[in-house]
Design brief:
The protein has 232 residues and is α+β, with helices and mostly antiparallel strands. It has two domains: 92 residues, no CATH class; 125 residues, no CATH class. It contains six helices and twelve strands. The strands form four sheets. The protein has a six-stranded antiparallel beta sheet with strand order 8-7-12-11-10-9. Strand 11 and strand 12 form a beta hairpin. Bound molecules: zinc ion. Zinc ion binds next to helix 2.
């Protein structure tokens, strides 16, 4: 299993391929700007390195990014032409899990129950969730199973695989790397909390990232797709 940050890493993969058209900084047939679709300058250094992905964009996009950056109003990577127009190959389902900033499984949060002795409602499809904190040296994780039911072995295997792969990402090396990574996550009303979403074959996954030191920093919630569909 591979986990990639969508669409940033997809754009970077595309650029690594496009870059091969440049030989000693010059291209006979330059590729298209992934941000706006215009043809890039034939001489590589005339283009600009994006501030948001390791990708060269055209000169005017470089200028536009700088202006928007100063105004703190960047164009989200999802709005780049290459993504909007669907030029890039879709990541292979099953093998590559995408971390995205938009939730495609809102229905999970519509079917809830209240566990005994608790006030907070939880989705009926929640299998387990993990809670992790970074103490300055390492991550500490505890697992929570509010339903008290033993998850099916195939779910356990998927959860283990996803969780291990996630925490091996460079983004989770320390709390500082996670903080930087959060500029690619979905912001919330709180300035220190962010969301990311993903899915595997049998599970929807919601990740809450909290950048406050000495607090819980990562919650990963796993929802059984079958249980979601079963409630409709
Ligand atoms: Zn451009």
């Amino acid at each position: 299993m591979k986990i990639i940050l969508y669409p940033k890493e997809l754009l970077e993969m595309a650029w690594r391929k496009d870059k091969k058209l440049y030989v000693d900084d010059d291209a006979a047939e330059p590729p298209k700007c992934l941000r706006c679709g215009a043809v890039l300058a034939a001489h590589l250094p005339i283009n600009a390195l994006s501030r948001y992905a390791n990708v060269y964009i055209c000169e005017s996009c470089g200028m536009d990014e700088a202006l928007r950056d100063a105004a703190r109003k960047p164009i989200p990577l999802e709005e780049w032409e290459a993504i909007k127009q669907g030029w890039l190959p879709k990541p292979e389902k099953g093998r590559i899990c995408c971390l995205t900033t938009n939730c495609t499984f809102e229905e999970v949060f519509q079917h809830t129950y209240t566990p005994p002795m608790q006030i907070i409602k939880r989705p009926v499809s929640e299998v387990v969730y993990s809670r992790s904190d970074y103490d300055g040296y390492k991550w500490w994780t505890t697992w929570h199973n509010e339903r008290g039911q033993k998850p099916a072995p195939e779910l356990v295997a998927e959860i283990d695989k996803f969780q291990n792969t996630l925490f091996k990402l460079p983004a989770f090396r320390t709390l500082d790397t996670m903080k930087r990574f959060c500029r690619y996550a979905q912001p919330t009303n709180g300035t220190t909390e962010f969301n990311l979403y993903s899915e595997t074959e049998h599970l929807y996954i919601w990740i809450r990232l909290i950048t406050r030191f000495r607090d819980y920093n990562v919650y990963v919630h796993y929802y059984d797709k079958n249980a979601v569909e079963g409630t409709q």
